[in-house]
Design the sequence.
């Protein structure tokens, strides 16, 4: 392996450029674990990393791809065996450290997650960073008291990666899931994932002068932020919790303290990037077991090669991607 074909972003002659180019394997650095990448995924953060306006890429050039799965082919750490199947995501991967959009990737041993029973490289990347974020969200809601039978659990941005995975995980745990989407054509697909009800996202974006409104949700997974999150907080039931991980609807939160001090609503921030490796590995074990969506092994995945990445990254930034798309960097 002297050179390999990789998708890179960065400046060439002063211009921001996305390109497929041959790079020397030494450009990957010298971190202790070398992974032959079977699949990577496409996440909103990958779209941002590929865009000059995204202000996410912190090295130039950068191989994006914030999650990847594959086989260890070289390791200088006894905790990660050559030949083992692994998952790598978060930390600096695909942002300040080369990521999954190349046939090989290097990672620190302390970033590596052993492939859990119940998953393989394909299903692990169908879950990916998005599904891991969804798992953290479901876990946080349940640790804060949500149980099946408490009432409807809302998922906003339901056709996205986090939302669609959250639906499957909540349904697998026995919750009554209400999916919110602006894509009416995807309603039946959302029901096939486990949603008991599908509502139009317009129900969650009205401008309201009221600090509180009619109680509706026993809990919620919010992947949108902005005015949508504010409306979810105003309509969450007494003592309920909202797990928030997204900002596609904006970073501002136009709300008041009333949901928190009059209804005891909990706003739970979800970070999938910098969490300690021990809990991260434990959560992946759950993703392969009690949090595994029932349809994960049978779902048909859209798989693209490096040449199709620019269009796919533009599509996710424009909100036009449904579910998860996998990247085979060997294509």
Sequence:
């Amino acid at each position: 392996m002297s050179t390999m074909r990789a998708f890179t972003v960065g400046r060439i002659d002063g211009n921001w450029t996305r390109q497929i180019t041959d790079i020397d394997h030494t450009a990957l650095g010298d971190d202790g674990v070398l992974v032959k990448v079977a699949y990577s995924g496409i996440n909103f953060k990958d779209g941002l990393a590929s865009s000059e306006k995204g202000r996410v890429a912190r090295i130039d050039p950068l191989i994006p791809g914030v999650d990847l799965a594959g086989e260890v082919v070289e390791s200088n750490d006894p905790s990660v065996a050559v030949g083992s199947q692994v998952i790598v995501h978060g930390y600096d991967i695909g942002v300040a450290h080369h990521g999954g959009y190349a046939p090989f990737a290097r990672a620190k041993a302390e970033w590596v997650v052993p492939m859990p029973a119940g998953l393989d490289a394909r299903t692990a990347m169908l879950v990916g960073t998005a599904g891991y974020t969804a798992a953290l969200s479901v876990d946080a809601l349940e640790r804060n008291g949500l149980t099946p039978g408490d009432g409807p659990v809302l998922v906003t941005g339901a056709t996205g990666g986090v939302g669609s995975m959250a639906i499957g995980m909540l349904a697998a745990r026995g919750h009554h899931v209400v999916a919110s989407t602006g894509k009416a054509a995807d309603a039946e697909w959302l029901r096939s994932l486990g949603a008991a009800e599908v509502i139009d996202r317009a129900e969650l974006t009205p401008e309201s002068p009221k600090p509180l409104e009619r109680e509706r949700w026993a809990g919620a997974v919010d992947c949108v932020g902005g005015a949508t999150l504010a409306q979810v907080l105003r309509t969450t039931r007494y003592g309920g919790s909202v797990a928030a991980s997204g900002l596609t609807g904006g970073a501002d939160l136009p709300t008041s303290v009333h949901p928190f001090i009059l209804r005891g609503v909990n706003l739970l921030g979800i970070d999938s990037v910098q969490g300690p490796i021990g809990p991260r590995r434990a959560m992946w074990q759950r993703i392969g077991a009690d949090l595994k969506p029932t349809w994960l092994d049978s779902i048909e995945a859209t798989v693209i090669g490096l040449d199709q990445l620019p269009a796919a990254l533009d599509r996710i930034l424009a909100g036009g991607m449904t579910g998860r798309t996998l990247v085979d960097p060997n294509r």
